Amino acid sequence: MMDNRSVVMKLIVCIVLLSCVWCDGIDIDLSRFHPGPENHSVFRKYYTITEDSTKINITNINDDVGMFIIQVHTFVENVTLSTNLELTLHSYVTGTNVGLLWGSDESSSMFYVLRNIAVQKEVRILLVVTLYDEYDPVPGGCNLSFDTPVAPYQVITYNDEYLSVNSQAPSAYGVSCDEDRVEVAMFHLYLPEYDNNNETYFHGIEKMLTVKNILKYGTQVSVPENYFKYRRLYSSYKGTGEVFAIVATYNNKSAAYVPAVSYGCDLLNWQQSCMGPVTDHWKLSMAVQVIFGLFVCFMGHKFFRMTLYMIGFTFGVLITYLTISLEENFTTTERAVTSFIIGFMYGIVWMFFWWKFGIPLLSVHLAFLLTGFLIASIVFYAGLADIPVFTNGMNFWATFVSIMLVSLILLIPFTMYGHIFACSFLGSYACITALNYYVGGNLQYIIINTYRRVAVKNFNYAVIDPPFQMIDTLHSLLWILLLLFGIFIQVRDQRGKPPFPPNRNEVIDAERITERTSLIRAEVPPPEYT
Ligand SMILES: *[C@@H]1O[C@H](CO)[C@@H](O)[C@H](O)[C@H]1NC(C)=O
Ligand SMILES: *[C@@H]1O[C@H](CO)[C@@H](O)[C@H](O)[C@H]1NC(C)=O
Ligand SMILES: *[C@@H]1O[C@H](CO)[C@@H](O)[C@H](O)[C@H]1NC(C)=O
Ligand SMILES: *[C@@H]1O[C@H](CO)[C@@H](O)[C@H](O)[C@H]1NC(C)=O
Ligand SMILES: *[C@@H]1O[C@H](CO)[C@@H](O)[C@H](O)[C@H]1NC(C)=O
Ligand SMILES: *[C@@H]1O[C@H](CO)[C@@H](O)[C@H](O)[C@H]1NC(C)=O
Q1: How far apart are CA 502 and CA 348, in angstroms?
Q2: pLDDT at 375
Q3: Using 50, 70 and 90 to split pLDDT, how confident is the model at 353?
Q4: Distance 252 CA to ligand 6 centre (A)
Q5: Between 393-411 and 365-381, two packed helices, what is the crossing angle to 10 degrees?
Q6: Which GO terms fall under biological process for this protein (predicted)?
């Protein structure tokens, strides 16, 4: 009885094992694939995997194939690609965009895809095999520090401020790794903003698989010749997926690294991590910012003292936040609270200045400076920061300050109109960035990138090249509209009024004068000379 049962058990186990040998395997027949033109040098197909380990049986590799890169791409879930079923050192790689290089004389080979921690019951993978001949450069061929000696993949790490895309140097047939003669070109491609759809993700990867497509769809970034060459930094735009690609070129022959994607945040925690802070505090302060932004944009000059206070406050917050960010041992909350308190005092001090001295030209300077700051930030955001000379801090800040000063000098002669412009410009920007928080868009990074340049170490090496998509275009148009409309309304309101409101001293003086002069001057008609 017992024997019988154990025999049945064994049989069942056998059948299960056998069936898995059949059902788990992915067979790839490469007989129709050759290195060379793209349409028959790249195998790509989607599979859905449910088991913990899946065998990939690659057969009929043609003789002209010198090497190939097998890539596995998954959305969110980490998988391990290995050359053995048992993981041995230097023979596997784990991640969402992984790849291994194969190069031997055999006509078949075997790989395994292992799932470690399943996020969902099944995982969809994009399996890609790109074929090269033996004289093509080898992506990641120079053994440096990665888990596998040849590492054709990229490893992305990120923090709040930037993404770091790490790779290994390429090698080529007959070239020593010390010579550094294989050239690399780096590219990136933005996925649609605030889109965490898996289809979009895979679609983006498919665009960056081959050298030809990378050149077609990717945007090239400069490659610094130093420590950051293979640790390329990219400014983080949370919630916007970014596909990274590297092309290695030697002797007119090119090969592509395995593309990698990052959203700069945790996809499993999309709302909280990728769509920005979702606390009630934050929602409230953004709503307040919209209201104050609109107020300054349309009535900033009319309510001069109120605006002075707000400009002083903004300036104080900005300066304090930038300054204490240089010191690393404060948390974001501490920084925010400190800058708010100090900003509050700045506002009061600035109002006091006006109350005491009452010189409009002095009082509007701060608004002009902030305008200059924003203009300089826009200029660098729009492309200047990606010109290699500006990795040098000296060049960067000298140019930045020059732009600020030029803006200041241009505004000063038109004190009243300058102030109206500054109010509408700053107010509409505040309003737009707060709106971005609710509806998406990346214009807030105009200021954030300047902040990062001040406070984040090595950020001068980061690629800025921001995404500028439909929603950003719409926001920019809205911004311009608000600006023009704000100027129009304010100039209209200002008609027939003195350019600046009287301050306390002038009011007192004026009262004194009227008391005294009413007797002497006003009632005496001017003498007539005929
Ligand atoms: C590859 O593309 C070229 C031109 O696009 C075409 O002429 C050729 O037939 C294609 N080859 C295969 C195998 O699809
Ligand atoms: C791989 O596939 C080929 C062709 O389908 C087959 O002959 C071979 O036995 C397979 N190898 C393994 C280990 O399953
Ligand atoms: C995948 O691996 C990375 C690096 O080890 C880790 O940070 C990340 O949390 C993992 N993702 C999942 C979904 O387990
Ligand atoms: C790669 O480098 C490591 C350390 O630098 C070394 O231990 C290892 O043997 C090297 N592997 C190969 C295949 O050269
Ligand atoms: C991919 O996204 C669709 C919705 O667009 C969803 O239904 C599906 O479950 C997702 N697949 C995976 C593997 O996450
Ligand atoms: C590379 O190709 C270009 C044109 O396709 C040719 O002019 C050049 O001589 C080639 N260089 C090498 C080293 O083969």
Answers
A1: 18
A2: 97
A3: confident
A4: 6
A5: 130
A6: negative regulation of programmed cell death
